[in-house]
Design goal:
The protein folds into three domains: 14-51, no CATH class; 108-266, Distorted Sandwich (Glucose Permease (Domain IIA)), CATH 2.70.70.10; 275-320, Membrane-bound Lytic Murein Transglycosylase D, Chain A, CATH 3.10.350.10. The chain is 23% helix and 26% strand. It has five helices and 18 strands. The strands form five sheets. Strands 2, 5, 6, 7, 8, 9, 10, 11, 12 and 13 form a ten-stranded antiparallel β-sheet that branches. Strands 1-16 form a two-stranded antiparallel sheet. 25% of the residues are buried.
């Protein structure tokens, strides 16, 4: 009996090996190739991720990028773009640099369109509703530091150049806002989104959609507010981009003090807004003292009031300031 069991075991073993060999050599019975296997593995991974995502519970404490940012995402600030110009990487403060570029002595050449890592794409498609410069805001004059492009709520907004998203958040004035630092050294700001589709540390290329147009923040209607900045200071976007065609004026751009001359106008306008038309002299006042008090020219005040800048003024005398 034992002999029959041993013979049967040997016969069964040979039969299964031959059968398995036939499976391997029979084209109709072949195992999936590597592509098919990888597709099966990807499907299994996608199903696992889907189950994991569906199990998440959204609460008010969750930030939106918890759901669009890849899991375990980490951005090493050592790889922040344009490190030759910037030493800080701040994901909260829009202008952490606080540099005065009105009197910069150097001229810096930036490459805008070499179609490698600086390929350009217009930030939005639409007509201009407001340009860079002074405009009336209610009863007062206010400087508008960007270019407004008329859009509909939900229209896509694009990154202008390749770079990394530094800021994506909601602010009181800008509403939902995105700021990108680009490889070429510029930073661009996009405001009033209805929905953000970007997160801090996200690498983007020119033409990537970073949000949907809206009217959040201090806005009177749906549009994109677009700014160009260098080291925190704003540059007129129309000196780089031809609106409304949305094309670069040149493949390079020179940053020099002339780019920031509008800041003198802004400062002058702020002082003018703070300075009344007339004031009354205090005890022991002179034109020089009054001029210093209001940040004005003593020579101009002296000529305006027909009095020496050194002469003591009678207390209560009416002095014209502008």
């Amino acid at each position: 009996m034992k002999f029959k069991v041993v013979v049967f075991s040997i016969f069964f073993s040979l039969f299964t090996q031959v059968g398995f060999a036939q499976v391997l050599t029979d084209p109709d019975m072949a195992l999936p190739d590597s592509l098919q296997l990888s597709e099966l593995e990807e499907e299994e991974e996608e199903e696992a991720e889907s189950e994991e995502y569906d199990s998440l519970v959204i609460t008010p404490s969750n930030k939106y990028w918890d759901f669009i940012r890849p899991r375990n995402f980490y951005f090493d600030t050592a790889f922040a773009p344009a490190s030759q110009f910037y030493t800080k990487w701040d994901t909260i403060t829009i202008n952490p640099y606080k540099q005065d570029l009105k009197a910069m002595e150097d001229t810096i050449n930036l490459v805008l369109g070499n179609y490698d890592d600086c390929a350009f794409h217009p930030p939005a498609i639409g007509d201009l509703s407001s340009g860079f410069g002074f405009r009336k805001w209610g009863r007062r004059l206010k400087f508008h530091f960007g270019t407004d492009i008329r859009m509909e709520v939900g229209d896509p907004v694009y990154a202008a150049f390749e770079g990394v998203v530094r800021i994506a958040k909601r602010s009181a004035d800008y509403g939902y806002v995105v700021l990108i630092r680009h490889n070429n050294g510029l930073e661009t700001l996009y405001a009033h989104f209805s929905q953000l589709l970007a997160y801090p540390g996200q690498p983007v290329k020119g033409g990537d959609i970073i949000g949907l147009a809206g009217s959040t923040g201090r806005s009177t209607g749906p549009h994109l507010h677009f700014e160009v900045r260098f080291k925190g200071e704003k540059i007129n976007p129309s000196t780089l981009i031809h609106f409304p065609s949305g094309s670069l004026l040149a493949d390079t751009f020179q940053v020099e003090k002339g780019c920031f001359k509008h800041l003198y106008e802004v400062k002058s306008a702020k002082l003018k807004a703070l300075v009344p038309k007339y004031t009354k002299a205090r005890k022991n006042d002179t034109i020089r003292k009054i001029a210093a008090r209001y940040g004005l020219s003593a020579k101009k005040l002296s000529r305006l009031n027909r009095v020496s800048s050194k002469a003591k003024l009678k207390k209560g005398r009416r002095i014209r300031l502008r």
